[in-house]
Amino acid sequence: MLAAAVLVVVAVGALSGCRDDEGATGAAADPSPRPTLLVNDDPGGFFEAIVSGATGLNAQGCVTIGDRLVVAPEGSRVDDDAETVHLTGYAPFTLGDDVELGGGQEDLPVEDAHPEDVACSEAGVDTVRVAVVAPGR
User: Fold this and answer.
1) pLDDT at 42 exceeding the cut of 50
2) For residues 34 and 24, which has the higher predicted lDDT (pLDDT)?
3) Percent of the chain residues past pLDDT 70, beyond the cut
4) Which of 55, 61, 90, 114 is the most buried (most CB within 10 A)?
5) What's the first-to-final CA gap in the chain, in angstroms?
């Protein structure tokens, strides 16, 4: 049941898109751009699993838990320091920390994944691996 709920949340296009908060201001290019955090603007579905593992960035600069892309609840963000992540309803954490969060995980065929998920994945993959984080309480 959980896998189906997560698939519906992600595959139906519930994601609002990538948030990289890099606002172009005309200033010199930052050599280390802010990480991309995928944000889910529709927390529909029912989550009762645990998403856990070491946080980090993949080669595309997207926030991960283990080998899965993080799909965060609406209102989540990466701080200006490009290391601290705030997920709605959870204590902030630093990239590299181990976390245990409510949510679920899904392996989506590329053709069923949201375009932002695919853009945050390695080129040529057949499956997009996501960790959908449910809003904390």
Assistant:
1) yes
2) 34
3) 70
4) 114
5) 22
Interval 57-116: pLDDT, tens = 999 999 999 999 999 999 999 999 999 999 999 999 999 999 999 988 889 999 988 899
CA–CA separation, 46 vs 49, rounded Å? 9
Nearest to 68 by CA among 126, 107, 115: 107
Reading phi first (left if > 0) and then psi (alpha if -120 to 50, else beta), residue 102 is in beta
CA 18 – CA 15 distance, rounded (Å) = 8
Length of the chain measured in residues:
137
Q: Can you tell me the distance from the alpha carbon of 99 to that of 18, in angstroms, rounded to the nearest whole number?
A: 21
- Cα distances (Å, whole numbers) of residue 37 to 1, 7, 19, 76, 103: 26, 19, 5, 8, 16
β 77-78/63-65 pair status: unpaired
Determine the pLDDT at residue 2: 33
